Amino acid sequence: MGYSLVRVRLFEGGQLRLQVMAEREANGTMTVDDCATLSRALSAVLDVEDPIGGSYDLEISSPGIDRPLVGPDDYERFNGFEAKLETALLIDGRRRFRGRLRGFDGDTVRIALRDGSEANVPLTAIRDAKLMLTDDLVKASLNAAETTDE
């Protein structure tokens, strides 16, 4: 359908909620109309396949400007932008890293930290990662939105 899957999460507690984050393959944007289109298509498939069992709410959303970073492609695509990483275990004596992404090498995320050092964080150790909202990121996002197909 021309969309890339960013992340899928099932939230429990009260009513189950299946959150699907997606973006256009062409330029990484996602409009309200895109969300509606994807919601209709996924609802039909989920109704037939019934992978969750029981009732749940389906939420289709854009990853947003300060999007989560999930796979190797994200770290390459957003090379040079500021990000925050949190690991499940200690890496060089710490669990939180904030700085400019320097790409992905093998199985390791490289990040230039604010103190001038660089950290190499194994992708498998990362529990949560997201871009930080900065002027550079907003400008890049606006440029991508200008190329959105109507």
Q: How are the SSEs placed, and which strands pair?
A:
Layout: E1 3-11, E2 16-24, H1 32-49, E3 56-61, H2 72-77, E4 82-91, E5 94-105, E6 108-113, E7 118-122, E8 126-131, H3 135-146
Parallel strand pairs: 2-3
Antiparallel strand pairs: 1-2, 4-5, 4-8, 5-6, 6-7
CATH topology of the largest domain: SH3 type barrels
Question: How many angstroms separate the termini?
Answer: 15 Å
Overall 3D geometry?
Answer: globular
Provide the residue-averaged pLDDT: 91
The residue fraction in helices comes out at: 10-25%
Number of helices: 3
Sheet with the most strands? 5 strands, antiparallel
Order of helices and strands: EEHEHEEEEEH
How many domains make up the coordinates?
A: 2
Strand content is 35-45%
In terms of per-residue confidence, which ranges show pLDDT below 50 for 5 or more consecutive residues?
Answer: none
Specify the CATH class of the largest domain. Answer: Mainly Beta
Strand order of the largest sheet: 7-6-5-4-8
Gyration radius over CA:
17 Å
Instruction: Give the total of beta strands.
Output: 8
**Architecture (CATH level 2) name of the largest domain:** Roll
Structural class: alpha+beta
